Known about the structure:
Blueprint: H1 3-6, E1 10-16, H2 22-38, E2 42-48, H3 52-59, E3 63-66, H4 77-85, H5 94-101, H6 103-110, E4 121-124, E5 138-141, E6 152-154, E7 177-182, E8 187-194, E9 197-206, H7 213-217, E10 222-225, H8 232-249, E11 254-261, E12 270-276, H9 286-293, H10 298-309
Parallel strand pairs: 1-2, 1-3
Antiparallel strand pairs: 4-7, 5-6, 5-7, 8-9, 8-11, 9-10, 11-12
Amino acid sequence: xxxxxxxxxxxxxxxxxxxxxxxxxxxxxxxxxxxxxxxxxxxxxxxxxxxxxxxxxxxxxxxxxxxxxxxxxxxxxxxxxxxxxxxxxxxxxxxxxxxxxxxxxxxxxxxxxxxxxxxxxxxxxxxxxxxxxxxxxxxxxxxxxxxxxxxxxxxxxxxxxxxxxxxxxxxxxxxxxxxxxxxxxxxxxxxxxxxxxxxxxxxxxxxxxxxxxxxxxxxxxxxxxxxxxxxxxxxxxxxxxxxxxxxxxxxxxxxxxxxxxxxxxxxxxxxxxxxxxxxxxxxxxxxxxxxxxxxxxxxxxxxxxxxxxx
Length: 310
């Protein structure tokens, strides 16, 4: 670490924006900014709007802590802007962000490397009103959204109709195309990676049986079992897959890889769902929780992420 790195920094915490995850980003950003101030840094809190480049050019921070979630903070748009402005920033770079937020592009990178992911295909939302693209039960999700935004599970007993009704509320009303994947029964697991180390495995137990956006960010809807009570073989696979996904995709700082595990199938029932390059940093978030389990405080976690960006 250079002498410059050891001194107090001016950090702009970029948060908010206009994605579906704005409120979560604001919560993440507040926690990060408070922690950085406790660590002795000068902090500028920036709620991103269309003039964000002018704002950052005016304050010229040493580094930007990217606390945005969703588009455009997670898809390479903000990363490209900061690259052009020659301002260092936390988390993954442009190319990695473009690939990781796109679930199909992610599969094209990870599956050939031996990381199992559910088979699926891109379907037209309009076509769903004619016939199911896969045998039920199956999952429909936007191709380029994070935090399980807009995910629907279509079952024989769902109230979407058969085939899906045009009037049924679901992601087909918001997106022209969706990713259809077989539904994997079983347990929700997740593993965070910090730098070059996978931290641990958390199991997520939700009242509604699926770890969707509301379950992630509404207190009391999800029980976090950290570390997960799973066989050592499954724990080892989760840690390995998460670290390899982080490395193959070129992630930096921290990432979080989510899994679905059919415990009746053993190791063959473990599938990666996605790798999140901008995991949440709210009080309910999984990365800070796993860091604490590994003996890393929130303030230390934020500091590690900032220092890696430099």
